[in-house]
Amino acid sequence: MAAIPDTARTALVLGTSGGIGGEVARQLRGAGWQVRALKRNLGGAAGEHGSRDADGIDWIEGDALDRAAVLRAAQGCAVIVHAVNPPGYKRWAEVVLPMIDNTLAAARAVGATVVLPGTVYNFGPETLPRVAEDAPQQPRTRKGAIRVELERRIEAAAAQGTRAIIVRAGDFFGPRVGNSWLAQGMVQPGRPVRTVREPGRPGIGHTWAYVPDVARTMVELIEQRAELAPFARFHMQGHRDADGTQMAAALRRVAERHGLAARRKPFAWPLVWIGALFSTTLREMLEMRYLWRETLELDNARLVRTLGREPHTPLDTALEATLAGLGCLGAPVAALAAGH
Prior knowledge:
The chain is built from 13 helices and 14 strands. By secondary structure, it is α/β, with parallel strands linked by helices. The protein has a domain at 10-174 and 209-238 and 294-313: Rossmann fold (3-Layer(aba) Sandwich). Helix 3 (92-110) links the parallel strand 4 (79-82) and strand 5 (113-118). The longest helix has 19 residues, at 92-110. The two termini are 36 Å apart.
């Protein structure tokens, strides 16, 4: 396979304000890349238009829904990381596909590789429990159908010469990830852990992904992109909660080490049913409930063959950093979040 000219180690990261996008951007900087980030209404968020923040990321004002803005930001970039999603599950049907179309158009114009953090929404219950990258995609939900179409468009672009890498992983969690099941469903950010809620059923496995590990995986694959197939998909095994109780037990264990006695409590699904009558976010949560009722495990054999191993932070270490970052362990350990 011909080598890819590496004339500039410059990447554009869309979605840098989010958990996974921000982590990939920081790790790319740590690996010696120049990183650009696109943000609407930049204003005082990172200084004046086009400024560089404390992490060394160059912020450019623009909207991922504006094709011309994405193309301008992508000039001279070897990689475009597409980590942008509508917050709170809102407006997926309206904006997800137009945003990836803009990214693909920009990548095609500048010859960049597209990198996507994927999800498990693509897969319905028929494919479970153990899922390989090429398993049939038969989503049961609207978001799942959108994710399948998103990946289909990336694959079609790859057939026309635009290289792409997709890394699928389970439920994200991490020190700077506020929009997650762990942060919104299991603990309460900003308060010491007193209760850990369990969304799943005992005996039903669940797959979790620590965002710094996901970002490290993506960065290592980016560095090896010349050796990968033009359209390369990988699964991360992440942290496997084999019986649906291990994540809650680990959260309580970490809390206890910080002098906090946290009790276990079932997640209040009946309240979600009621709230879904008025909230788009809660309706979308209900639509994805099957992932808490069915065991899902991602087969990471292809990733291990490619990298030699899967980047993996021990669970208690990852949860301690996450709880510190969410403000759930108190001020004295806040530095843990930055350290990880």
